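TA notes, week 10

Several of you asked for a full example with nothing omitted. So below is the full record: structure tokens for the whole chain, then the designed sequence directly under it. When grading your own attempts, check the secondary structure regions first.
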């Protein structure tokens, strides 16, 4: 029996455009210089308040970051509707999830810097809520790369970290997996480079979702 824990943004769904537009409007509201798309991509995976602080070069969260986080959250669904943006699945993701969802030797979960509401929306939009039996979000645990998201999913499902595989596109996913004692698979279609994923502990790289399947055999 194995536990597969998937990151969401950049791994299952392509949400960079939506995140960046919401971030751009937030920075504009607070009179800040608009972030570059590359700046936004670099923080995807972190919990939102930490991400906003880091984009401003701050090592710690300050009151302004908390206020900007609240504004971002209030905007997110509005921007999603404005852009008619539904955080599309990356090509091949649906087929991969369909292939593993019926296996009796595999449990599927999510570990994400999204809010619980945001994750639920993605799961419902794409019909994945019936397959993912465990999840931890930014509302539940410290931000990645802290290992709590992984260890709490392991505890809830009765699985050992050694039998757990974290699949993600960010260096924070790789670092989190290693800190928890789990295997880390980096995906090449997300927001970090393959070299960055390898340097931060990836045990393997998947260049297409169907390549993930062999790691569950």
């Amino acid at each position: 029996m194995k536990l597969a824990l998937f990151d969401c943004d950049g791994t299952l769904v392509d949400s960079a455009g939506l995140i960046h537009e919401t971030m751009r409007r937030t920075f504009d509201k607070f009179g800040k210089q608009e972030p570059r798309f590359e700046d936004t991509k670099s923080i995807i995976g972190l919990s939102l308040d930490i991400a906003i602080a880091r984009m401003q070069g701050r090592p710690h969260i300050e009151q302004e970051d908390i206020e900007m986080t609240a504004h971002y959250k209030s905007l997110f669904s509005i921007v999603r509707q404005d852009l008619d943006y539904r955080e599309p699945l990356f090509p091949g993701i649906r087929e991969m999830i369909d292939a593993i969802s019926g296996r009796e030797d595999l449990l599927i979960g999510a570990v994400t810097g999204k809010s619980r509401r945001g994750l639920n929306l993605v799961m419902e939009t794409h019909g994945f809520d019936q397959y993912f039996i465990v999840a931890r979000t930014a509302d539940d645990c410290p931000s990645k790369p802290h290992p709590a998201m992984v260890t709490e999913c392991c505890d809830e499902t009765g699985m050992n970290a050694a039998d757990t595989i974290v699949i993600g596109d960010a260096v924070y996913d790789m670092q989190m997996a290693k800190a928890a004692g789990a295997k880390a698979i980096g995906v090449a279609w997300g927001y970090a480079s393959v070299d960055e994923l390898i340097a931060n502990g990836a045990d393997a790289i998947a260049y297409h979702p169907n390549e993930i399947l062999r790691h569950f055999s």
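Residues 16-83 form one domain. Use that as a sanity check on your answer.
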